[in-house]
Fold this protein.
Amino acid sequence: MRIFGKQRDFEAFEEVIAEAKVRLPMRLLAWCVMPNHWHFVLWPRGDGDLSEFMRWLTVTHTQRWHAAHRTAGTGPLYQGRFKSFPIQQDEHLLTVLRYVERNPLRANMVEQADAWRWSSLWHRVHGDEARLLDDGPLALPRGWRQHVQSPQTEAELEALRRAVVRGAPFGEGSWQERTAKRLGLQSTLRARGRPWKTALQPK
């Protein structure tokens, strides 16, 4: 379903983001709002902050969207709970930032990634007057705009999509295992599908 159709829809959502950041300070490292979905890269300060931030943002946006479109009482705007996964604070984080900011380019909606008005890359290039962006644990490399413009490898995309679908930690192997154990996400690292049955051997 198309959530954001006209310019005002996108503007209203950015206003909700700004209000959510005031209510519960949340570091926003990147985002991209597409016509029917959006991506955030968030850096919470404490346990529980992520869920509370997302709860207030989605509930508030849903209420205002229905009021603006005169569709109150017609059901939820979002399907289910948001998906999230932990990210290692190294080049894996840069990979995710780049993935998020490449979204409109990958969808063939623009020819230059920074031409999409409703993303953090546009704010980086044209000035973050709304003050939505926060500094992350890593400085972006020089030539970030051109870096985002260049294609990502199929291996990068596949690893990222797997993390999104499973909610699995995104990072190098040993970090993934440690993080999954600490957060109780071990099942996200296991191969999907039914386990093999072991044939009984005669004694």
Remarks:
- The longest strand covers residues 27-33.
